[in-house]
Amino acid sequence: MRIDIVSIFPDYLEPLRLSLVGKAVEGGVIDLHVHDLRSFAHDRHHTVDDTPYGGGPGMVMSPTPWGEALDCIAGADAAGRPVLIIPTPSGERFTQQAAQQWSRDDWLVFACGRYEGIDTRVMEHYARRSDWAGVREVSLGDYVLAGGEAAALVVIEAVVRLIPGVLGNSASVEDDSFAPGAMEQLLEGPVYTKPPVWRDLSIPEVLLSGHHGKIASWRADQARARTKAHRPDLFR
Ligand code: 6GU
User: For 9-55, what is each residue's pLDDT tens digit?
Assistant: First the structure.
């Protein structure tokens, strides 16, 4: 899979060189390209923002450098059609389902906005370009980040760990709290490892019983209890 990211803070994306995603990059599973939006702004100060039409606070990202950057990334000789993903608090909610969908795509391009966002015509333009595979504006949840970079890190990690061969143990993907077909839509319950007693705390007896049926039903009970407590909205 090819992943391109455009940002005015390319260093913000350095964590993608670490850990699980970093290994996928090193191993050639991910062809990662990080671009500095300012290198596509040609005035003396490499300006990427301007005041909003209609007035109001803050600044809006100009469509001009965005168009240049995105056209340069997916030029006439492009091998395939990229999906344009725009992290924004006004997007649709990012879910495990979207992560699974994108883990099967060949090419993702992330446009990380700052300030009050990117001029809407950028999204409109690439949505109707037949050499692009669509535009998705996604939000992580109901809170506001300073820019799209941290959200892009989250989305990329969620997507990359689903690519076959990236995780050591693919069973742990099917076990995920929000994986379709996982125990309905339940959160994962508590987990334990050695030592059997830690600071006067022991582990639930059933986990030592060797009785797989009893263990499975205890885990299901725990998952239901945790979901009811932490995410009553998921509990039906
Ligand atoms: Cl995707 N971007 C920003 N800037 N803030 C957010 C978000 C995204 N998701 C939640 N808050």
Answer: 999 999 999 999 999 999 999 999 999 999 999 999 999 999 999 99
Ligand 1 centroid from CA 140, angstroms: 6
Q: Which residues partner with 137 through β-bridges?
A: 86
What confidence score (pLDDT) does residue 181 get?
Answer: 67
Can you give the pLDDT at residue 60? 98
Residue ranges of the chain with per-residue pLDDT less than 50? none
What pLDDT sits at residue 203? 98
Residue nearest to atom 11 of ligand 1 (CA): 144
pLDDT given at position 177:
75
Around ligand 1, the residues with Cβ closer than 6 Å are 87-89, 138-141, 143-145, 147-148, 151
Active-site annotation, residues: 89, 116, 161, 176
Give the pLDDT of residue 178.
Answer: 82
Counting from 1 in the atom list of ligand 1, the atom nearest the Cα of 146 is: 4
| Residue matched to tokens 């299901």 | 220
How many Å lie between the centroid of ligand 1 and the Cα of residue 212? 42
